[in-house]
Amino acid sequence: MALTLMYITNHPVIAEIAQSAGVDRIWVDMEHIGKEERQGGLDTVKSRHTLTDVRNLRRVVTSSELQVRINPVHDATDGYLGTEEEVERTIAAGADVIMLPMFKTKGEVERFLTAVNGRVKTVLLFETAEAVSHIDEILSVSGIDEVHVGLNDLHLAYKMKFMFELLCEGTVQMLCEKFRSKGLKYGFGGIARVGLGMLPAELIITEHYRLGSSAAILSRGFCDANRVDDPETVRDIFLEGVRNIRLKEAEVSALSQNQYMENLMTIREKVNQIISKK
């Protein structure tokens, strides 16, 4: 089964381009609570999208799904609405899928799922050490549609130097086996264009297939649309990039188990080279 490809943007023109190129989900990222404290000083995506962005993209996202990452579970403050109201407004704005980040406990997941109440698809973003520690009780909650492993925050939680270390020491494999045992659709991390990336995208795509993953984010290494002024250049990047990913998927889907393990060995070698320079 082909990977569900996701791209984060709040620009309607970029969303339309990504959709027309075959991106499966356009992702509006409203998460901001606690993000600067966790990732301050790091070269990571800090989007600060809004409900207005959800409504604007809803007008153009017609064949892809519209996914929204809300904030971690929280109570209302003078400055921002609480989780229940955030979920209500996100659904009203037109989201097809809502993603919950940075949860640590079963109770937080239950609160989120109760607020959604089956009205749209739900995705749990596993990206805290506590969530990993409590994975069995969290996955016992009914109403979870999909799960994703957030390599960036999770590797920070484990004080690792590089997010793809999590592919090397077994954490991602363990999580995928847990997800598969529950019959959940699952994915992890992001990918650049084929041939690009500090860890080449083709190695990561192959590992997705070895682990039975079915979703990946298209990273800034795939296309940083904020740095490309010409929409037609962005369109060309997406059309060629998505096509090459699909071709690579067709190729790696036919590999043997031995070939998958050889790919994992190559990942470990390259990751070791990368972290030795950090």
Search tags:
278 residues, alpha/beta, TIM Barrel, nine-stranded parallel β-sheet, 9 strands
Notes on the protein architecture:
The structure is a single chain. By secondary structure, this protein is of the alpha/beta class. It has a single domain, classed as Phosphoenolpyruvate-binding domains (TIM Barrel, Alpha-Beta Barrel), CATH 3.20.20. The chain is 47% helix and 14% strand. It has helices at 12-21, 35-39, 51-58, 83-93, 106-116, 129-133, 135-139, 151-157, 165-168, 171-181, 201-211, 231-252, 257-276; strands at 4-8, 25-29, 65-69, 97-100, 121-126, 146-149, 185-188, 190-191, 215-218. The protein has a 9-stranded parallel β-sheet, covered by helices on one side. β8, α11 (201-211) and β9 (215-218) form a beta-alpha-beta unit. α1 (12-21) runs parallel beside α12 (231-252), α4 (83-93) packs across α5 and α11 (201-211) crosses α13 (257-276). The radius of gyration is 18 Å and the shape is globular. The two termini are 36 Å apart. The model is unreliable at 40-44 (pLDDT under 50).
